[in-house]
Design brief:
alpha+beta, YojJ-like (1, 2 domains, 7 strands
């Protein structure tokens, strides 16, 4: 037993920092590759390839020589088959890489999420349509998602408005935003029991304050009575915010960096190439 333990120690000690870096890079590439393929035709092809590999391994274990011979000859042209089969996905992936890089800018994606939410909240407030939108931060909100409707969709002003319209079956309750996506809708959150809350504050505001007391989430509330937009953070309610103040507070709370000169230049270059393509 001691020899086995010593062998494990020897293996651990032989690991270099660049081995760890190598594993991290390969793992990240595989993760983003699978994330890119899920939900596409390429994902179904990938599953088919794994099934073929399973049959090949089974043939080697059972020593099925004819099947082995077929697969051994098939792998020699396998790279060309993969290029042909994954041609649309490869083209789309390379185009996306040229536009934004393989790793999307987290700050830009957060900024877009904030912009879409503010536009939706402003639209709803002008028409006095109530809404409750909760941004998840470091504390997981899974304890509050029982009975919610799973959405898992990109944030857009159209989708948010359609959720909170009175005739929508999802308009009651809150929307939870997680990782720049609309994760859940029709979520019923715990109400605050703070006795100092003004009596003219409704259930929607009390739910927003309640979730901000129990977690570090940020709750945006649109009042259907007054048509005002409020933010609940750490049990405090900031009322009647205009769009500029709202954006400043959200960007600060969600740690969104302002657009840099480099990003502005990149946008101008992208517009230039789009113009060339259209011509």
């Amino acid at each position: 037993m001691f020899e086995n333990f010593q062998w494990i120690l020897d293996v651990i000690q032989s690991i270099r920092w660049n081995d760890i870096l190598d594993i991290l890079i390969v793992s990240t590439i595989i993760y983003y590759l699978l994330k890119f393929l899920i939900g596409t035709r390429g994902w179904q092809i990938l599953i088919g390839i794994f099934l073929i590999l399973s049959v090949w391994l089974l043939a080697r274990v059972l020593e099925l020589r004819t099947v082995q011979w077929i697969f051994d000859n098939l792998w020699s042209v396998g790279i060309f088959l993969i290029i042909v089969l994954f041609q649309p996905e490869l083209r789309r992936g390379l185009a996306k890489l040229g536009e934004t890089g393989i790793f999307r800018n987290l700050f830009l994606s957060r900024k877009k999420a904030v912009d879409e939410v503010i536009r939706a909240a402003t639209f709803l407030a002008e028409r006095k349509i109530g809404a409750l939108i909760v941004f998840e931060r470091t504390i997981d909100l899974d304890n509050y998602t029982e009975g919610c409707v799973k959405i898992n969709a990109d944030i857009s002003i159209e989708l948010l408005i359609s959720i909170f319209l009175p005739q929508s079956p999802l308009h009651d309750g809150a929307v939870i935003i997680r990782d720049q996506k609309i994760a859940m809708a029709r979520c019923f959150l715990p109400l605050t029991i703070n006795p100092n809350i003004p009596k003219n504050i409704g259930t929607r505001h009390r739910a927003g304050i309640g979730i901000s007391e129990e977690t570090d989430a940020v709750a945006l509330i649109v009042s259907e009575e007054r048509g005002e937009i409020s933010l609940a953070v750490d049990g405090k309610l900031y009322r009647n915010l205009d769009s500029l103040t709202l954006k400043k507070k959200l960007m600060e709370l969600l740690e969104v960096k302002p657009t840099t000169k480099y990003e502005k230049l990149r946008k101008k270059i992208n517009k230039f190439f789009e113009k060339l393509k259209s011509e």
